[in-house]
Write a structure and sequence with these properties.
The chain has about 325 residues and is mainly alpha-helical. Strands 1-2 form a two-stranded antiparallel ribbon. Helix 3 packs across helix 8 and helix 7 packs antiparallel against helix 8. The radius of gyration is 20 Å and the shape is globular.
């Protein structure tokens, strides 16, 4: 895993440096407080996966211009905005190993800074003059907002199905990666076939990425994850490992899962028992296999493109989504 990660980072080092500069140069708030709050979430160790996907997608389609790094900021600003809002909604304490923004500056500042980042993303998109791209970004913003609301509605619902779960993670996570890849193709003026292929790649990658995230909430430690493990369970969120295990459990095991979902302040021992049940009923392995199928679909989507260094890099990124530890 570390070898694959280093292999990817070495090949995108220059792109990441330019993306980092663009994120700073294009933020442009009028108030220092907005800048401090935005930078707290933007520059706290994020992977820059979404802007990188846009840049690489454009390159794969033959883009030769100079606006790709600026435009890629849209996707990191959108991502950061959702994190600010999600942390507040979820009552989170840590993000990437640091105190959340609303703990430092208050709820109102965190919400309004998130709103600023959403608006800034749309402003940057508008500078392209591409109505198609602007429409996609607006639709992404709508979808992510509704995905968060949908997740709130679903909290503690033991009748949640795998299909319900997929719909939520598509809206909350995959739609942004799908949009980043698609807009990269549009920026390059790619034909419909290539645009669709990259859209499919981004969607499947995003679904796999979130599935592994949800798996790590049960298998990683706090230092690796950058937040408390078991956070989803404490918030009453049913993710795929638990949805699958609960569907297979019976008797006392089923009752225990039902009871733990309403407790929230459960003990370490209780959480460890949940993990034992997830293993017993194959919830963890099922989730890993489901993510692997999405990674395979993402890689297959790129078959319309000929061999190139950029295609190889996107294939490696898909593989890394499956084996990452944070």
């Amino acid at each position: 895993m570390n070898d694959l990660k280093q292999k990817i980072l070495t090949r995108v080092e220059g792109d990441l440096a330019e993306i980092e500069n663009a994120l700073t140069n294009n933020l442009r708030p009028h108030l220092d407080l907005v800048a401090k709050t935005a930078k707290h979430i933007l520059f706290s160790g994020g992977k820059r996966l979404r802007p990188l996907l846009m840049v690489l997608s454009a390159r794969l389609c033959g883009y030769q211009g100079e606006y790709d790094k600026t435009f890629s900021c849209v996707f990191e600003y959108l991502h950061a905005a959702t994190l600010l809002h999600d942390d507040l909604v979820d009552g989170a304490e840590f993000r990437r190993g640091r105190p959340v923004a609303h703990a430092k500056w208050g709820n109102a500042v965190a919400v309004l800074t998130g709103d600023y980042l959403l608006a800034r993303a749309l402003s940057i998109a508008s500078e392209t003059g591409s109505l198609k791209s602007i429409k996609i970004i607006a639709e992404i913003t709508e979808s992510m907002s509704q995905g968060e609301i949908q997740q709130l509605i679903n909290k503690g619902d033991l009748n949640l199905t795998e299909a319900d779960y997929i719909e939520v993670i598509y809206r909350k996570t995959a739609v942004l990666m799908e949009g980043a890849c698609r807009v990269g193709a549009i920026l390059a003026g790619a034909p419909d076939r290539e645009e669709q292929a990259l859209s499919d790649y981004g969607r499947q990658l995003g679904l796999a990425f979130q599935m592994i995230d949800d798996l790590l909430d049960y298998t990683a430690d706090t230092d690796e994850l950058g937040k408390k493990v078991g956070a989803d369970l404490r918030e009453g969120k049913l993710t795929l490992p638990l949805i699958y295990a609960y569907s297979k459990a019976g008797g006392d095991d089923r009752v225990f899962i039902e009871r733990i979902l309403v407790q929230k302040n459960f003990s370490v021992q209780a959480f460890e028992k949940v993990i034992i049940l997830l293993k017993k009923y194959n919830g963890l392995e099922y989730t890993r296999q489901a993510a692997a199928q999405r990674v395979s679909a993402a890689k297959n989507a790129l078959s319309v493109f000929g061999a190139s260094d950029t295609k190889a890099l996107l294939l490696d990124i898909a593989d890394y989504a499956l084996v990452r530890k944070s």
